């Protein structure tokens, strides 16, 4: 689906008073066996295929924002170039420009080799998508081999088709014979994959397979990655697959409202649809990734709100706590050097999230998220998170906040630790301010207004 980049800007928090409810999820003192390893670069950014040149050439603030993340990672942010427009784009080796709209079909695009030079210019791990929807293997292979010659060092994986489950249902595309169910799609993807692998000529696995719009069966025999792994792909195709991929959009109507959409309990329920798929991919030794994430594929207004930013932080942390799973969406809250582990230690059935990050088997960061909604008018509710079982160490906290759940960066910048990101060049403005958090014999209380997130650092260095 079209992926939209949300920069989140910021602002200083004004704690307007309100009644405070309390929630209490004990901190597991020792590393729970369910804790998942954190990838060193768990979150990447997905660029819509036909907007990639414009992002790269003309939207410098995006790259400045990504540099801030790269600094936290110690590596460039991984990216994906794909989306529905990859299946509407033809390669023209002779075209010297960026990309243009086909004059005979305004949905269609034509691009040239420069598309791939821009990948080398970036120089970070890239998942690159090619067109399967138009059923022109020769053109897609020619494009892929051009990408190989121009950007091989950065090609982490290649997608043959984006959201093939919609080729027929939405587009009535020629590749799709009705009803384009899982057996038809699985067979087509297996054939393309094998033919691609034969021509690609490298022994290491390179494909990101699946790329389905949602992980649930929207109709009988809906295409899915379990079917690819268990039935459609033989050993030779499976060996060429590096990762299995699904997209994560809200499984609700497009008229769904932000107050319901941003709820932690809803995020947990949506992501629970991935549990079996993660296990199936793991059973064949492959990671399972979320290639796109957002509220709704076609409705980007909510994604641009601060409530959307709060939700994507929650979704990202919950996803990584479920196993080696990375979402491609924006999050500046997640810093994860190797050997860290994360566990979701909340109940998953209310609006309050608590994630504990462990290092050397000891809790050293707790992320608290209050996904309650605040319109910007009237009273803003507050919730006290009571943390127990903390080591007897100094605590400090960074708060992510904004004036409301509905606000966008055009109106008011959100802040993290009192710092904002300028809307023009994504420059970090202001000084970082940590809050002190008292630790009374292993118990601490942190108050979060509706739509705020706080990282509590358990300060081993100060012990
Ligand atoms: C970048 O901006 C320039 C100047 O506005 C414009 O001519 C060019 O077409 C843009 N390039 C892309 C890829 O959007
Ligand atoms: C998919 O549709 C085809 C054509 O109608 C049919 O032969 C096949 O059995 C279907 N597959 C599944 C898994 O339902
Ligand atoms: C594996 O499946 C692909 C795609 O259907 C097919 O082209 C290939 O011949 C198969 N390989 C073997 C060894 O059966
Ligand atoms: C919420 O989750 C907790 C812990 O998993 C459970 O004890 C409680 O019954 C659940 N509450 C509801 C309303 O489902
Ligand atoms: C401190 O916490 C420990 C462990 O929870 C408890 O046994 C002890 O009674 C507490 N001491 C005080 C003074 O509250």
TrEMBL record:
Q: Which organism is it from?
A: Xylaria grammica
Beta-glucuronidase C-terminal domain ranges (all copies): 354-455
Q: Taxonomic classification, please?
A: Eukaryota, Fungi, Dikarya, Ascomycota, Pezizomycotina
Know the name of this protein?
A: Beta-glucuronidase C-terminal domain-containing protein
The organism's place on the tree of life at top rank: Eukaryota
């Amino acid at each position: 689906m079209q992926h939209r980049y949300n920069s989140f800007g910021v602002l200083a928090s004004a704690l307007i008073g309100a009644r405070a409810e309390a929630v209490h999820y004990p901190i597991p003192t020792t590393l729970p066996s369910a804790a998942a390893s954190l990838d060193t670069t768990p979150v990447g950014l997905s660029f819509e295929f036909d907007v990639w040149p414009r992002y790269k050439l003309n939207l410098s603030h995006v790259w400045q924002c990504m540099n801030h993340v790269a600094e936290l990672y110690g590596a460039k942010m991984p990216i994906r170039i794909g989306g529905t427009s990859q299946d509407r784009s033809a390669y023209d080796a002779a075209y010297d420009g960026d990309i243009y709209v086909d004059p005979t079909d305004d949905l269609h695009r034509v691009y040239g080799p420069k598309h791939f030079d821009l990948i080398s210019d970036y120089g970070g791990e890239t998942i690159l998508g090619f067109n399967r929807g138009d059923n022109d293997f020769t053109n897609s292979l020619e494009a892929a081999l051009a990408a190989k010659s121009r950007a091989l060092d950065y090609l982490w994986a290649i997608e043959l088709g984006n959201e093939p489950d919609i080729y027929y249902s939405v587009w009535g595309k020629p590749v799709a014979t009705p009803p384009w169910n899982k057996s038809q799609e699985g067979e087509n993807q297996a054939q393309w994959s094998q033919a691609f692998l034969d021509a690609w000529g490298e022994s290491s696995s390179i494909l990101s397979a699946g790329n389905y719009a949602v992980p649930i069966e929207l109709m009988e025999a809906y295409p899915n990655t379990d079917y690819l792994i268990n039935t459609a792909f033989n050993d030779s195709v499976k060996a060429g697959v590096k990762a299995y991929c699904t997209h994560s959009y809200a499984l609700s109507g497009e008229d769904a409202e932000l107050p319901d959409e941003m709820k932690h309990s809803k995020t947990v329920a949506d992501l629970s649809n991935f549990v079996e798929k993660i296990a199936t991919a793991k059973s064949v030794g492959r990671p399972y990734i979320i290639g796109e994430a957002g509220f709704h594929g076609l409705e980007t207004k909510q994604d641009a709100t601060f409530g959307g930013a709060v939700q994507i932080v929650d979704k990202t942390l919950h996803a990584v706590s479920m196993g080696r799973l990375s979402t491609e969406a924006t999050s500046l809250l997640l810093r994860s050097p190797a050997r860290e582990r994360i566990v979701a230690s909340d109940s998953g059935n209310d609006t309050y999230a608590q994630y504990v990050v462990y290092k050397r088997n000891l809790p050293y960061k707790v992320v608290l998220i209050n996904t309650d909604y605040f319109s910007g008018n009237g009273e803003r509710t507050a919730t006290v998170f009571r943390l127990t079982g903390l080591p007897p160490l100094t605590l400090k906290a960074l708060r992510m906040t904004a004036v409301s759940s509905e606000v966008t960066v055009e109106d008011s910048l959100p802040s993290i630790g009192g710092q904002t990101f300028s809307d023009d060049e994504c420059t970090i403005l202001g000084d970082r301010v940590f809050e002190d958090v008292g630790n009374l014999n292993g118990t601490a209380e942190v108050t979060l207004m509706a739509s705020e997130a706080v990282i509590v650092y358990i300060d081993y260095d100060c012990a």
